[in-house]
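hiii so um. not sure if this is the right channel but i have a protein structure encoded as tokens and i wanna go backwards to a sequence. like what aa goes where. can anyone help
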């Protein structure tokens, strides 16, 4: 879920869920400045994923940190960072099936244990 510390102004409609990933080895500051009456600024560490809600017309500025300053390195329209909505049936977690809905591999591995004359399967969660 998106972390909302400063909710969007009520006059803003059409908010979208966005994701930005810092693919650099430097600390970055993500900032949206083009929305009146709203302040959005977050530090994004190398390799970190930032998920946030923003107006569709928002523009994310990326400032890359140096020793004593930060340089504006990119401006990205928020609608280009929009996450696609996933239907609920794709994430249906049926515990009886024992299947991972994303990877379609078994979440439970069977191990045969020898108990005397019979072999009984033992289920171990991965």
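sure thing!! here u go:
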């Amino acid at each position: 879920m998106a972390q909302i510390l400063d909710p969007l102004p009520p006059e803003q409609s059409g908010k979208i869920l966005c994701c930005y990933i810092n693919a650099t080895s430097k600390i970055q500051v993500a900032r949206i400045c083009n929305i009146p009456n709203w302040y959005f600024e977050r530090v994004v560490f190398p390799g970190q994923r930032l998920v946030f809600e923003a107006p569709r017309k928002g523009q994310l500025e990326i400032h890359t940190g140096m020793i004593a300053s930060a340089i504006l390195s990119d401006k990205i329209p928020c609608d280009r960072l929009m996450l696609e909505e996933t239907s609920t049936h794709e994430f249906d977690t049926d515990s009886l099936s024992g299947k991972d809905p994303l990877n379609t591999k078994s979440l439970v591995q069977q191990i045969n244990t020898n108990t005397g004359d019979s072999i009984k399967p033992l289920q171990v969660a991965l």
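oh and Strands lie at 15-21, 28-32, 40-44, 49-55, 59-65, 70-77, 108-115, 118-125.
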